[in-house]
């Protein structure tokens, strides 16, 4: 190639390069498409998960009320017993002897009273004719009154001895589940102190004892005053029991007691709920989680947990503003409600909260929001051609 021709080719290439550089810049990438949901305020149950411990609704110690030797245990340990059912038998022979002695004393007192009454009646008949002195009459009537009092005392002794004899058959004071025996046959009980024989717990219903910090209670009362919370009335605050293995008991309990004094050691207030236990599933002494429903949270938002992020500042959600740009909103989360966070502050009604595609967006940058239904429809539409192509092949 000659030199003029080579120069002409180089000049043409240079012009082509300059023309390419002078073309307008390519169009910018479209904003990323993300799934959004409109924040909608609603009233949701005001719940707190608290740790508590179950205890019997009634517990009674069965003790020996009279001295004696235990002859037999009648009940089966760990079984359900009825009120009045015989549990232990104490040797009744000494008590029977005491009753017989008291009955003999009563018979003697009654005989003495009969003799004194005859003598007093005779003195009262003879007194008007002056056959006996006034002093003799007074003595006869005094002896009659003393004999009558002795009869009453003897009757009381007989009744006391009969009651003690009845205590030889130790019965259940309440219905419930009887524990293991604390003494064995042949043991001498009731000497001085009332000896503990066993314990009965009523467990067809149980108490759930738990506590809540006084500051949290004060916060709830203040929120009620501000109209953000509506606390339930007496008898309407419910409790649901969650066992250590995560199982939730179907039967719902009722909060029936709230202490009026703050424990100075813990700064908390004691609370108690009554929980049904007809099938005896729950056992006293178990530590459980109590989901207490105390009322309603007014104007709260339920936001999917994946849409809430956290950093060192606070929890926050990414929202598409009216100008189409992504903005951060710091929020206050109360607790998890199923797959959602309960947000009590930081959002406004109608906010377009990004729930999917957070990795695509950046604060201050534009983004296009679509609903979950629109995203699903677009995905289905894209899948149809691919399926058709696969069948054609």
Could you walk me through the main structural features you see in this protein, from its secondary elements to its overall organization?
- The protein has 393 residues and is an alpha+beta fold.
- Helices cover 30% and strands 39% of the residues.
- It contains five helices and 20 strands.
- Strands 2-9-13-12-11-14 form a six-stranded antiparallel beta barrel.
- The chain is elongated and about 140 Å long.
- About 3% of the residues have low confidence.
Which helices and strands occur, and which strands form pairs?
Elements: H1 3-21, E1 33-38, E2 42-63, E3 68-73, E4 80-81, E5 86-90, H2 93-126, H3 134-166, E6 169-171, E7 176-178, E8 188-189, E9 196-213, H4 214-225, E10 229-231, E11 238-242, E12 248-263, E13 268-276, E14 287-304, E15 309-310, E16 315-320, E17 326-337, E18 340-345, E19 352-356, E20 368-370, H5 372-392
Parallel strand pairs: 1-20
Antiparallel strand pairs: 1-19, 2-9, 2-14, 3-5, 3-8, 4-7, 5-6, 7-9, 9-13, 10-14, 11-12, 11-14, 12-13, 14-18, 15-16, 16-17, 16-19, 17-18
Helix pairs in contact: 2-3
């Amino acid at each position: 190639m000659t030199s003029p021709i080579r120069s002409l080719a180089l000049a043409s290439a240079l012009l082509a390069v300059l023309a390419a550089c002078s073309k307008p810049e390519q169009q910018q990438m479209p904003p990323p498409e993300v799934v959004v949901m409109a924040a909608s305020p609603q009233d949701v149950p005001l719940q707190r998960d608290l740790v508590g411990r179950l205890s019997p609704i009634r517990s009674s110690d069965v003790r020996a009320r009279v001295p004696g030797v235990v002859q037999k245990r009648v009940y089966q340990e760990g079984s359900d017993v009825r009120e009045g059912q015989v549990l232990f038998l104490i040797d009744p022979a000494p008590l029977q002897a005491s009753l017989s002695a008291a009955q003999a004393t009563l018979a003697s007192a009654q005989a003495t009273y009969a003799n004194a009454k005859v003598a007093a009646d005779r003195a009262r008949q003879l007194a008007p004719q002056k056959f006996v002195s006034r002093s003799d009459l007074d003595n006869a009537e005094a002896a009659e009154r003393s004999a009558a009092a002795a009869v009453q005392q003897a009757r009381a002794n007989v009744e006391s001895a009969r009651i003690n004899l009845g205590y030889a058959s130790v019965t259940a004071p309440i219905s419930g589940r009887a524990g293991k025996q604390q003494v064995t046959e042949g043991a001498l009980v009731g000497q001085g102190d009332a000896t503990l024989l066993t314990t009965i717990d009523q467990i067809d219903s149980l108490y759930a004892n738990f506590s809540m910090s006084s500051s949290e209670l004060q916060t709830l009362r203040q929120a009620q005053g501000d109209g953000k919370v509506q606390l339930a009335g007496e008898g309407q605050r419910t409790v649901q029991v969650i066992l250590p293995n995560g199982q939730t008991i179907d039967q719902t309990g009722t909060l029936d007691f709230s202490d009026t004094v703050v424990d100075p050691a813990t700064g908390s207030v004691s609370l108690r709920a009554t929980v049904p236990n007809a099938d005896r599933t729950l056992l006293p002494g178990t530590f459980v989680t109590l989901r207490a429903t105390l009322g309603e949270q007014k104007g709260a938002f339920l936001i999917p947990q994946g849409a809430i992020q956290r950093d060192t500042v606070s929890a926050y959600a990414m929202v598409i503003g009216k100008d189409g740009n992504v903005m951060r909103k710091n929020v206050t989360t109360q607790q998890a409600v199923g797959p959602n966070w309960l947000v009590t502050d930081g959002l406004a009604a109608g906010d377009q909260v990004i729930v999917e595609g957070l990795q695509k967006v950046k604060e201050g940058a534009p983004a296009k929001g679509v609903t979950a239904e629109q995203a699903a429809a677009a995905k289905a539409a894209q899948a149809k051609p691919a399926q058709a192509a696969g069948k054609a092949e």
